[in-house]
Amino acid sequence: MPNLPYQSRNIQYSPDGKYRWAYEVPLMRNPVIFITVFKAICLTVIIVVLFAIIINLVNDEGLDSLLFTGKVMLIVSGVFFVLFLIGYTIFAAINGWKYVMIFEMDEQGVLLRQLDRQVKRAKAIAMLAVIAGLAGGNRGAVSAGVLSATHQEMYCEFGSVRSVKPKRGWHTIKVREMLTHHQVYAADEDFDFVFQFILSHCPKAGR
Q1: In the sheet that 163-167 helps form, which strands lie side by side, from edge to edge?
Q2: How many whole angstroms separate alpha carbon 51 and alpha carbon 48?
Q3: Half-sphere exposure of 105 (CA within 13 A, CB side)
Q4: Separation between Cα atoms, residue 99 and residue 23, nearest integer Å
């Protein structure tokens, strides 16, 4: 008996061979986005601090100058952190403290779409139901309906993925290409399927 495509109350399988699902990311309860952006800011600050230290050493300005530079960099880092907290809170508030992602996954890769903040999860699921029903017919019209609500989208090709890391507690699967990092979200009951599917289709990936 052939294996039937995976389906759940969240994930729909369409005649075009794609798995589709929607996930609502709570920006203040799921820390993965906060941590990702914070790491990028920390890396920037570290580079600036190292650059300032190198300038001091090259100019041979002495220990006092080096300590002064260190104090200034520490204050600047603190200011950056406060501004980041304020900016992230404003970003979360503007987006209604959450945002909706739609995923389309097949044998070749996964497409990640962030919907406009006006689009709620219920509407996203309704859109997916329409796609599932019409995927074998007028795909262009269906895709146009989804794209009209899309705020941002990225595509991850499984053949170029270098690592796949699960973060079950955050409902997140981190999928990394050479220069791009993606975050795929899935509900508890679907997490194992999505993770194993991605991992099994990424021949270059390690854990």
Answers
A1: 163-167, 172-176, 181-185
A2: 5
A3: 26
A4: 8
CB atoms within 10 A of CB 115: 23
- What residues does 156 pair with on adjacent strands? 110
Per-residue tokens: 199 = 């991992």
Q: Three-state SS for 149?
A: coil
Average pLDDT, the chain: 81
Distance CA 36, CA 73 (A): 22
Chain segment 85-102, per-residue pLDDT in tens: 898 898 888 777 888 888
Of 84-93, 143-152, 183-192, minimum mean pLDDT range:
143-152
**Lookup: tokens for 91:** 């970003």
Q: Could you give the CA distance from residue 78 to residue 129 in angstroms, rounded to a whole number?
A: 47
Q: How is residue 47 written in tokens? A: 């580079």
DSSP states of 150-181: EEEEEEEEGGG--EEEEEGGGTEEEEE-SS-E
pTM of the model: 0.76
For residue 180, pLDDT beyond 70: yes
Tokens 């990936």, located at residue: 205
